[in-house]
Amino acid sequence: MTRTALVTGASGGIGYALAAVFAANKYDLVITARGTEKLEDARREFETRYGIKVHVITADLADAGAPARIDWELTSRGLTVDVLVNNAGFGTWGLFEDTDWQAQTGMLQVNIVALTQLTRLLLPGMLRRGRGSVLNVASTAAFAPGPLMSVYFASKAYVHSFSAALAREVAGRGVTVTCLCPGPTASGFQQRAANTHIRVNKDRELAPARAVAEYGYRAMVKGQAVAIYGWDNRCAVFLTRILPTSLVARVVQFLQAA
Ligand SMILES: NC(=O)c1ccc[n+]([C@@H]2O[C@H](COP(=O)([O-])OP(=O)(O)OC[C@H]3O[C@@H](n4cnc5c(N)ncnc54)[C@H](OP(=O)(O)O)[C@@H]3O)[C@@H](O)[C@H]2O)c1
Q: Which of 16, 152, 215, 229 is labelled catalytic?
């Protein structure tokens, strides 16, 4: 039986790697992002290499109408989504008081609202069919306050909380919800956030996107609710849970500084 995974933000980075992992596991794909050219390149590559069918839907998830339009496209193309991978997301670096408001609302729309709305649109079908999975990409940022990336960290805390709650709501009904939490990963993320120069990213090898994607895929298959990539990240998250929040915020501020 052919299964289909919808991957948002599949034109690069972790989303592209996730799409490749689903393709290697013989899923047909619906891939979406803003950049049509990169999506078309990915479509050609996955169809040739893995012999699967790939559908491209170009969409800007910062646009409030995008999730409903994606759902409409799925219906009109007769596509059923077995796995929803809410991966698209971005961050901006700097003091909150200096941030560009349009970028902040765009971030909230992409990281939170679109993820939530796509889940609302596609989860009922999965529950009706008694099978399916949602794989939400949060971050280790979900577990700490994030001075210098305050809105981004808070948006990922939302993704983690929302996913953990949904995982409970759907438990035992054939559908799973997994929250993948990568730490710093090699992708276009740092460039877009303009934070390649900060302590946490500088002079260290970032995790490969493919390894993060494979880890997330395996966690989804196991029905794991939360999947934190890497033992170092799991240790860091453990510390955020036992240390006072004010101390965690200080440490994160140090790591986020140039
Ligand atoms: N890299 C890290 O260190 C790291 C760590 C933890 C969590 N994460 C999370 O991992 C996820 C993937 O990020 P990444 O690291 O792979 O970054 P990336 O290389 O910048 O990829 C982001 C993807 O999201 C898409 N995207 C961005 N804005 C969009 C919009 N407005 N509408 C639709 N698609 C949009 C991009 O495509 P277009 O530009 O073509 O739209 C791209 O495909 C994000 O949720 C991020 O928060 C990343």
A: 152
Q: Domains plus CATH for the chain?
A: 4-256 (3.40.50.720)
| pTM of the entire predicted model | 0.98
Is residue 27 annotated as part of the catalytic site, yes or no?
Answer: no
Residue 206: pLDDT above 90? yes
Q: Whose CA is nearest to atom 25 of ligand 1?
A: 9
111 Cα–ligand 1 center, Å: 9
Q: Which long-range contacts (CB under 8 A, 24 or more apart) does 235-242 make?
A: 236/140, 236/183, 237/140, 237/143, 237/181, 240/143, 240/144, 241/143
- Alpha helices (H) along the chain: 13-24, 36-50, 66-76, 101-108, 115-129, 150-170, 189-193, 209-222, 231-242, 245-256
Cα 165 to averaged position of ligand 1 atoms, centre (Å): 23
How far apart are the CA of 89 and the centre of ligand 1, in A? 4
Yes or no: say if 62 and 88 are a contact pair by the CB < 8 Å rule. no
Q: Could you report the per-residue pLDDT of 79-130, keeping only the tens digit for each? A: 999 999 999 999 999 999 999 999 999 999 999 999 999 999 999 999 999 9
Distance CA 141, CA 65 (A): 27
Cβ 83 under 6 angstroms from ligand 1: no
> What single-letter DSSP state applies at residue 149?
S
